[in-house]
Amino acid sequence: MKPLNIGMIGYGFMGRAHSNAFRKVGNFFPIDRRIVLKAACGRDGAKTQAFAHTWGYESVETDWRALIARDDIDLIDIAATNNVHAEIALAAARAGKMVLCEKPLAMNPAEALKMVKAVEKAKVPNMVWYNYRRVPAVTLAKQLIDEGRLGKIFHYRAKFLQDWTISADVPQGGQGTWRLDAAVAGSGVTGDLLAHCIDTALWLNGGIKEVTAMTETFVKERQHALTGKKQKVGIDDASAFLARFRNGSLATFEATRYARGHKALYTFEINGEHASIFWDLHDLHRLQYFDHRDDGVIRGWRSIHVSDGDQPYMKNWWVPGLQIGYEHSFVHQVADFLAGVASGQLAAPTFRDGLATDYVTDAVLKSARSGQWTKVKSA
Amino acid sequence: MKPLNIGMIGYGFMGRAHSNAFRKVGNFFPIDRRIVLKAACGRDGAKTQAFAHTWGYESVETDWRALIARDDIDLIDIAATNNVHAEIALAAARAGKMVLCEKPLAMNPAEALKMVKAVEKAKVPNMVWYNYRRVPAVTLAKQLIDEGRLGKIFHYRAKFLQDWTISADVPQGGQGTWRLDAAVAGSGVTGDLLAHCIDTALWLNGGIKEVTAMTETFVKERQHALTGKKQKVGIDDASAFLARFRNGSLATFEATRYARGHKALYTFEINGEHASIFWDLHDLHRLQYFDHRDDGVIRGWRSIHVSDGDQPYMKNWWVPGLQIGYEHSFVHQVADFLAGVASGQLAAPTFRDGLATDYVTDAVLKSARSGQWTKVKSA
Amino acid sequence: MKPLNIGMIGYGFMGRAHSNAFRKVGNFFPIDRRIVLKAACGRDGAKTQAFAHTWGYESVETDWRALIARDDIDLIDIAATNNVHAEIALAAARAGKMVLCEKPLAMNPAEALKMVKAVEKAKVPNMVWYNYRRVPAVTLAKQLIDEGRLGKIFHYRAKFLQDWTISADVPQGGQGTWRLDAAVAGSGVTGDLLAHCIDTALWLNGGIKEVTAMTETFVKERQHALTGKKQKVGIDDASAFLARFRNGSLATFEATRYARGHKALYTFEINGEHASIFWDLHDLHRLQYFDHRDDGVIRGWRSIHVSDGDQPYMKNWWVPGLQIGYEHSFVHQVADFLAGVASGQLAAPTFRDGLATDYVTDAVLKSARSGQWTKVKSA
Amino acid sequence: MKPLNIGMIGYGFMGRAHSNAFRKVGNFFPIDRRIVLKAACGRDGAKTQAFAHTWGYESVETDWRALIARDDIDLIDIAATNNVHAEIALAAARAGKMVLCEKPLAMNPAEALKMVKAVEKAKVPNMVWYNYRRVPAVTLAKQLIDEGRLGKIFHYRAKFLQDWTISADVPQGGQGTWRLDAAVAGSGVTGDLLAHCIDTALWLNGGIKEVTAMTETFVKERQHALTGKKQKVGIDDASAFLARFRNGSLATFEATRYARGHKALYTFEINGEHASIFWDLHDLHRLQYFDHRDDGVIRGWRSIHVSDGDQPYMKNWWVPGLQIGYEHSFVHQVADFLAGVASGQLAAPTFRDGLATDYVTDAVLKSARSGQWTKVKSA
Within this chain, do residues C139 and C104 fall inside the same structural domain, yes or no? Predict the structure, then answer.
């Protein structure tokens, strides 16, 4: 089998999640490339070295430019902070590398559009790590919708609730808390959490026409982990919006890091003419499904434990009833990415799909500032 | 409309539940008798008077013999402690009164059998207040089974868990705690809680062939509320048994008052060849139903919110989605009792059905003492 | 005990719910008035007669003016359609009667304000039937908030989802479907369902400052049940809004009759600094409560089965673990109303509280038309 | 780091689960040995080769004796069928290899006892793959019990329900269905499913004193996959027993493959004086916990989403709220096994612990045959 040499940029949470996916995929899915963890790249040499050791990367780089310059790297995986996505991706595309990029694609639509143009011009395989599409229960939801089981859609409802920044003592900036630093993250929960909700929604329910939004920063100043100084907080702590989809359905979206009791409660519900669907990341193996066409007296929400061999991805894992977890969505994404490369039909979400989400988050932030209903651009 | 004059014996928890049912039934169900709360009867004159006032009973008696002797009483409702059920019922039957009796029917099968013979000889309408049959979700379960939706039954599983007697300071005997006094209650959780589980099971799944059981009294001595003395506890605090039903299915039953966290958790589950059912008194409006014949990828346990007009009893109440509660099962029982009297086809559970349950609880207690599998007599 | 003579206007769903409450309250709560169902009033004489018979009303009127004119009526209960609330209430207040009125209080804030002024000028006890405040789990939520257990509130989230009007064959107007006729109902789900959500929210979380809203009418024309003609539908089928409360918290509200699988799914969630609360009408006995101050490793959402004697209203009913239902919230409301009359401290929600909700629904409808954030007036 | 060379026997479901654990453990846990997948062993050369390729085993054997004879193998992992556990383990111990063995340890206690003696005599590290102890929620349950939070235990309740053999067309014997062949599996659900329940129970609640049991074989004859002939079924399809623990608590246990709607529903509940615990494999990340010492009005079952860094094993994975799955319990077991080897304190369950479980399953099967309460031997 031909090797596929990976160059990984970043050794944090996502660096680990992606590395794990690359290492595991061949044990469970039929793939046509031998994945080689060729090089890990990070600014801190010692940390990068430790990371490479833990995950079995063959070599280490501390400058991403050097990594991209290497001939023995086929694929650049960007697991670095949001503020460097564009620069790295543009260089990688120019170098003819495949490019995978963590979400959100960019700091703003202008950057994202450049990235799309670059990978499309270079004709390099590309993908954004919106991993939740490939939780089996979510993929099943897509399948049910595409089969027309729901009929005309009336409502879409999504939220992503966390509670880890309620304390005013949480700093901004630095490792683990860079998501609170607007200069590095671009935005707060809008780009971090809502972006996930939006990516799934666009996939399941099509384009969004317009939005009206509200954001809030509950804690106005936080110490910066790098400077040690109290600084104004530039991100949004909470963000909610109403939307109209192009298919005529109405939607509510909300994300926050101030919802006590929720660690990562990403949920969505879709109400159609005939059937409805509900999903919850905290119980990711279950899909709740209601079908009005069921016999009246025994009609009810079905709690589907998505773990059977005929349900998406599950025949590759264990036996019915036994769960997989968060990390497996990344494994599925690598498997599908490779199948897409092999077939010439790139698996979604591509950079262009990532741009579509960035257009929505941009409209949300603009509407929150202006107080006006705001149109969403098409990617 | 012809009046139906009620004579109520007992003013405790069950006296209230039955009175409420008699008062309400005509507001919600079409009945052919005008129910009159004619007389309340209890040993404590003042308390009986207060009870009569609250519920609108026209008169008061302090001797049940006097009540039965009255010509203006059509129906004797026995809501008194277990140890007086038989004596009162025999007298009432002899006097030609209709007789309703709280569960369990009697202190033991010998007493129960006499009661059955008395009402059958006197040809008086009779019923035991096993009210849970008429929670709409339970009645729906019966309907689904009778339609054959489950196919051959493999397993029956029931339990009734409470936690109110864990403290050694709870007394035995007296008001509110007479259920801990073997002389008044007959047995502990076997006759009190398991009896409910058994009545439902015999109704849903047919007769039980044999049992092997285990009981325990965790707190060996308790102060008696009437004598003030510490006395040996004669009841069973916990009782569990394995059983084989006549239809070949296997069963586990358990009841206890030592299950922290459960106030009145009566649950049952039935597993059939094609479908399964689960119910839980703590969420009494829901019936969980799984049907293997559903399309594979969307197969799951359905949580049926039993509140639609086409589900048992519900068209007589409010609108879909709005719940009724515990007390309504008694209202349904009165409505069905009256319909049975009108039609000449007595509604179950009759005294003979109550005897069947007493035969099972008797076998359970015997098996717990002997350590042997024990056959169950047929009623 | 001094009698309290009730004059009931309307014999539909709410006429039944209120009558049941009046009949039952004295069986379960200590009240200082003897409630007498004096007269039922409705335009259709035969139906009103049947209703009076079922519920035990002593007499019947077919003109509400005649009812109000009677000296033997102490309290007028308006369970008629929204379009006649104001006229009847004004007349009743002028006649010095106590006035209870179904929600929403009026067709618009102008009407509602007149009603408030009328009852306040006449100094007659008054109340709006926003019954959900008195579901025990909801009352417990209020108690927990008032004790300060949640701390500063960040988020409020409420929705009321139904699915009964999805079919285009459901008519507008007439009995059972007058809620689809804008001339009779005033608005659609905004006044019908959102009004419940708003009343609870104002009670639990204080005033709303401003809103931005979106409404939709999915089925544009429906046959009118009375005229038999297809007519334009004037109500909103779905309504959602974002809001900022005066206490700084953010909110999302949504109501619809197009959410397949939900019969009457009224839910709310409140996220505070220390604790969060969630409630769901479909499982009305449970309150979900999360407290961050719990020991870390065993922190979790608690499913509180609100049925103990020390929880609101429950000591008056049965024993722990046994549920009450929808109708009991009305019983509680009557009990509290009477206690308020006795003490001189009127129980909420008064007409003025009803006006506050009407100001919010009015702002919602206006914002939905204008597309602008809209300020909410204070009542 | 010193290598640890693994010799894996078996390439089925468990061969995969164990291999995955060996491959992953070093990416997530600090271990002091470099794990090398040295050799895979199976009777079918081609299948073994394919398995070795997928998982990266360096070499292949088709005779386990040859594998054990190799000097470059440090650890023998027995993932073969039950009927060969003893023979292989005895040889491995004699050869001084570390031995890991799939559950149940042996075909019967006599075999198991020999295995225990062999590993103890040879002083080789040994372990049985009862993996469910190391699902984080289950480990947390153990921790809460050991801290004394539950107080005196009154009740233990466990069941393991599946539905995959209901059809009479499922064969016995052969790959995937050898668990239905008594000659290969030893027993049916008793050794397969109940053994899991028992291992956890002994760990959490101490020894079992005596049992009374009932088993059933619903389908009496099945075609044998290897012979092609209809043969009598020798295994138990369902098995249930009552038990008394040495600590005085009462228990019910049940396992079946005839419970429609359940794929792998392993649940246990423990009721103590102060607190109770419930766990369910279908939602393996949640531990339900009730603590009576909580403030009365807000007392309820807590649904603990066991995914925080201070909960067992979770700091080694992702971030709070993100789930791991079934396979991770095996990873934890390897990590703990290695830590045990390093410290000289072997991690449980050792072979001796496995013997204890076999004594219970043996007593269950004997009691089911005799109909008598049966004492359980101590390991």
Answer: no
